[in-house]
Amino acid sequence: MITTALLAAALTVGAAPALPQDTQQATFGLTIRGITAGSLRLSGQVVDGRYAVSGALESGGLVGILRRIRYDASAQGRVADGRFVPSSYSERADNNGRTRSAQIDYRAGVPQVKAYDPPRARDEDDVPPSTQGGTVDPLTALYATLRDVPKGQECGRSLRIFDGRRATEIAFAAPRRQNGTTTCNGEFRRVAGYSAREMAEKSVFPFTITYQPAGTMMRVTQVRTDTVYGQARLTRR
């Protein structure tokens, strides 16, 4: 589903804070090894304890010239006890003209992989969805991570993520605050669903998230992380 570079660059989410009822939109530029690689756009809304979010990742710069990649995704669900609980997730990918799509629904918090188009055979490394109760989808994770939050609630705690095939985990260290800026360190960890070669290649990706004041809220302005492609950076535009 969502590419490893995007996951390692931006899937860094913990517990959700108290949520205002508003719509938030954000655009981030993605660079890898200092080279412009694309952009990430998010739009989300929380109303009466329900959330809905859409997002798009598109290649750009030199990467976009060499290879056209675009991912569009949407998710919705509810907020319970300060946590995002997805009810559905869908995505569509276009990789140099080769398109595919996927749909995940949730029943009592357990993901149900409903459709792949084109259909795909199960791989021996795939994680059974029935074992992934309480996980969130990739887009919900991105939204919860990159949205504005009240001061004092910038960093989260460990969270499990499932994308339909792979299980990952996010862990945060204590936040550091200085001169109005908050920095959060953490790790993105591959847990299951990866081949032995992929796990040997890299299983832990350190990251740093930087927040700056935005009115009465704190706003993510940059995410830095290791990826299998080198150092990556998301910068808010």
Secondary structure layout:
Elements: H1 4-10, E1 23-32, E2 35-47, E3 50-59, H2 61-66, E4 69-80, E5 83-95, E6 98-107, E7 110-117, H3 138-146, E8 149-150, E9 159-162, E10 167-172, E11 176-178, E12 181-192, H4 196-201, E13 204-214, E14 217-227, E15 230-236
Antiparallel strand pairs: 1-2, 1-15, 2-3, 3-4, 4-5, 5-6, 6-7, 8-14, 9-10, 10-12, 11-12, 12-13, 13-14, 14-15
Describe this structure in words.
The chain is mostly beta strands and 237 residues long. It has one domain. It is 12% helix and 56% strand. It is built from four helices and 15 strands. The protein has a 15-stranded antiparallel β-sheet that branches. A hairpin with a 4-residue loop joins β9 (159-162) and β10. The chain starts with a helix and ends with a strand. Residues 1-20 have low confidence and may be disordered. Residues 114-137 are annotated as: Disordered. InterPro entries: DUF3108. Keywords: Signal.
Tags for this model:
single chain, 237 residues, mainly beta, 15-stranded antiparallel beta sheet, 4 helices, disordered N terminus, signal, DUF3108, DUF3108 domain-containing protein
The number of helical runs is 4
Query: What is the arithmetic mean of pLDDT?
Result: 86
**Terminus-to-terminus distance:** 26 Å
| Number of DSSP-assigned strands | 15
Order of helices and strands: HEEEHEEEEHEEEEEHEEE
* Assembly of the depicted chains: single chain
Radius of gyration (Å): 17 Å
Counting helices, strands and paired strands, the structural category is mainly beta
Fraction of residues in helices? Answer: 10-25%
